[in-house]
Amino acid sequence: MAGIVLGDINTNDLRYTAEKAYETTEFWKEKFIETNIDELTPKSLLSATDKIFITPHDLYNIDKLWPTYIKNVEIFHGVMRTSGTTGDPKRVPFTHDDKKRYRRQARSWALEYLEGSIMASFTAPLPSSSGVFAIEGFSDANIRYHQIPIQYLRMRDALIKELRGIKATGIFGLTAAVYNLSLTLPEDIRNDIQLIIMGGETLTKELAKVVLDNFPNAVIFDVFASTEDGLTGYRLITKKKVTPFTFSDSLIVLKQTKDEEYKEYHEIYITKVMKEGELTGLPLFNYKIGDLAKVVDGKIVNVIREKDTISLAGAKLHIDQVMDIVHRYPFLIDFVIIYHPLSPENPKPKATIRVGYTEEKPAGIEDEIRELIYEANNPVRYEVEEAKSSELRIEAVPAKEVRKNLPQKPGKTKRIFIVGKDI
User: Fold this and answer.
1) Residues facing residue 195 across a β-bridge
2) In this structure, are residues 131 and 172 in contact, taking their beta carbons and an 8 Å threshold?
3) Pick from 11, 4, 6: which is nearest to 244 by CA?
4) pTM for the whole thing?
5) Inter-residue contact 224 to 233 (CB < 8 Å)
6) What DSSP element (H or E) covers 102?
7) Backbone torsion region of residue 182, taken as left when φ is above 0, otherwise alpha when ψ lies between -120 and 50, otherwise beta
8) Most buried of 112, 116, 325, 359 (most Cβ within 10 A)?
């Protein structure tokens, strides 16, 4: 099968990971039934993508997916709760060996660039946030790490006093938060910042340029991360260059998307590789995470979070989650999401969910849908209601007006319309 394999992975480690997954999980025992694990290589994993893979929906099947050493509590582990795609949360077990992976994933750039830094972290204090554990990856570097209360992003005077008090030389936060800081912090603080670690929202060239213009002495580390796999990859962005993404402890399989709108992009599949003797909480092979990679000369130069997911700062809102909620009501027959992504002209990502009703408008339906979304997706609630980093509107209209003034391609049912791309 055509595709690209990235990641400097030891084949013996890959085989060990597959062997442990096969021995301890029903899910992977079924997936690997026709595969000779002793002969498994990154290229053979690529060729088996159609049968050896996993999707976010599979994460709900705890009985089959969690290893016996997790289910039987044979080793200590914590469980992170991350937003669900169909109205239920996904729960991901996290072991001490996962922390080791975070440390390895960050070590290659932490030692070189973070040494001596004073980091101010604005990562959301949520158990589902990869940033909560990212500090594990910084522990090999000689740095001072300050966790800044996330509410300070809305309290300018307290924020400035805090940053001046700690004399920060680096910032670690979600793309939306860092972008807004670049617009609001005083010049003397911005001049002190030498390193910016950011991720969550797609980082475009235009956004990166604005951030670097406003932090004139800084470089950016754009981190591609997930709760399931950790700090999968990163790229370095300066005013003069943008490096391709680097992957250390994960195997990346790229397959060309069949969507004509994304001809330059490849679907991303992630394999979480363990070192010999390790036991991570969740084995993953060809995890079809739903993100797309722009590939130039066989290297990933950008990652976007489009397709069936939109990003509200650090939170993902999945189209099938909205679909599940809307279709609970017999009087709602259609919906679209109008998405305003982060841009220099739009400092907050915004989403309007427009639902179509039949007959009379049901009283309170907008508030009811909003509450169901928050119940199913706490990160969205947090980013919209507490961090104030995003906006979410629910709009109920007669069914015939749902797609009013929206382009519609013949024969293609489209639910997400992106302002600046589609409309």
Assistant:
1) 170, 219
2) yes
3) 6
4) 0.83
5) yes
6) helix 96-109
7) alpha
8) 325
